[in-house]
Amino acid sequence: MQxxxxxxxxxxxxxxSFSIDTPLKVARFGISSxxxxxxxxxxxxxxxxxxxxxxxPFTPITEHEDDYRARRITAYxxxxxxxxxxxxxxxxxxxxxxxxxxxxxxxxLPENSYLKSLYNEMLLEEKAAQQQMMQDxxxxxxxxxxxxxxxxxxxxxxxxxKSGEALPSEYTDALAALRGYANSTVHSSIVFSAGxxxxxYSYLDQFxxxxxxxxxxxDKKIIIKVSDYRSALVQGKxxxxxxxxxxxxxxxxxxxxxxxxxxxxxxxxxxxxxxxxKNKEALVAELYSLYSAALAAKGKQVPxxxxxxxxxxxxxxxxxxxxxxxxxxxxxxxxxxxxxFLLVPEATTVDEETLQKLAxxxxxxxxxxxxxxxxxxxxxxxxxxxEAMKFERAAKGKPGSPCEKKHLVSNTEFxxxxxxxxxxxxxxxxxxxxxxxxxxxxxxxxxxxxxxxKECLCExxxxxxxLKFDLSRRAINQTVTICPGPNLAxxxxxxxxxxxxxxxxxxxxxxxxxYRPHMFINELGMYIDYWKKTKAEQAxxxxxxxxKYLQNFWQNLQEGISYYKQLLPSLxxxxxxxxxxxxxxxxxxxxxxxxxxxxxxxx
Length: 603
What we know:
- It is a single chain.
- The chain is an alpha/beta fold.
- Among the domains are: 1-148, no CATH class; 517-603.
- 46% of the residues lie in helices and 8% in strands.
- The chain has helices at 22-26, 40-53, 68-92, 101-107, 114-124, 128-141, 173-182, 198-204, 229-240, 269-297, 320-329, 352-360, 385-395, 424-436, 441-452, 457-460, 463-468, 497-504, 519-537, 544-571, 576-595, 599-602, and strands spanning 9-11, 32-36, 147-152, 189-193, 221-226, 246-252, 259-260, 310-314, 334-336, 366-369, 378-381.
- The strands form 2 sheets. Strands 1-2-3-4-5-6-8-9 form an 8-stranded parallel beta barrel, surrounded by 5 helices. The chain has a 3-stranded antiparallel beta sheet with strand order 7-11-10, with no helix packed on it.
- Helix 9 (229-240) links the parallel strand 5 (221-226) and strand 6.
- Helix 3 (68-92) runs parallel beside helix 7, helix 5 packs antiparallel against helix 6 (128-141) and helix 9 (229-240) runs parallel beside helix 10 (269-297).
- The model is unreliable at 598-603 (pLDDT under 50).
């Protein structure tokens, strides 16, 4: 079973389609990536496409069949796994010559890796027989990156039979996706994001693949994406008590990320990483104690020591210096690079029109938007075709989108069965309700804008792949929503895989000429803006609870700034200019917080 990957970065899940086939593009080079299990319709379309492209048999799994969602996911993952294994076998047979994928595999590796050193020794070997032996050994050491999957735990709608009856809980979106993954042949990890889903976590226990096998390893591992240490501890304990081990906590910046942004209460990434650094041993020990007790209670074998647990981090990383600092100072095992890879067609799937918009995007084009039907802030790009379609429909008096996939249904304001706030059905009724309230014009326009802001993400985040591979002629499939993080502003152009990996490892610089503050400063600025916006929205009629929240948020930001001031010598050893500049930026942020301080809370 695959236990080792040669790179110390991964490509996180992006949208629905942007990383849906990323393993087929990068896994053979030892690079791990994550694909979304949210929409089985897209997954089935991709299985159809790649089956025919690779001359594999394809039997459709229709929506009329039992458990079609789980079966579609299993079938696609099995196909991806089969194709990646074939790619790796083909790669192993190639010559160590310029331009071959075998050579590319080793050239992509970080300079300090054991495999890279063996490869460099082979290149310097002058004796032909010895060099051949070394090449044969290197071929055996080639391993693919992990084919990881993501379930956004909040997307767990109830599904219904053709007669309109609610199906049992194991047929909800998230549980069916989990079952589809568990039944697949891939040996990889499942990433749970967006918080806890107790029904989903309880369902994990039904699949032996998440427990230790006879070799004392896991066929399938559990990764929890978290925004702070407390979340890791709480979720880790819940799973440990069920006899389930979390093999990785994947820390993501609450705001400096792509897609949905789950802000912390002002806790910044640096202090969060520091808490993990200080408490990781205690965390492992506490979870191992609970895990062991749970296994013993079930009559299962208890491992002599805690299984391996990784801590990784992602969100706004943009330079090799930042990447290396996170690895070395905080001791994380890997970093995640998402948004920059949207500019790498060899790694992600973005249609040409959207790709060009990304390549030329500037800071003003990237914003924390209100477009998600979930009501969660969503990092997005202005000027997308999906945004244009939304405005066009509203202008014609037909606001909202047809709602076919229904993965984001959550609102029961007008219906017994949940509907989506981006849907035509909801927006028509909501606007009628607002008109009936006879609100002052300015107030009505503000409320109307909130309703019309929502976009259909089920379609918008899926369509890029359909356009790229010419898989659909339907009008609903022609508009694209894309969700880059703010970090995109510092990358301009379209890049090769080799170039982006070289950038991550410090062999090349792909940043544009825009001044880029350190990732910690960028995130701090986003949190200050978020705090100010929240404060302004609550100014008219603030409650004691809201006031306490704002003050606590403010205090956490101040403590974060103090932490970064102390960190500066470690962050920039022998780089006085960079140290001075970041200190100035921290002082400016401190002053801004003081100027906008919530006065009533301080009285």
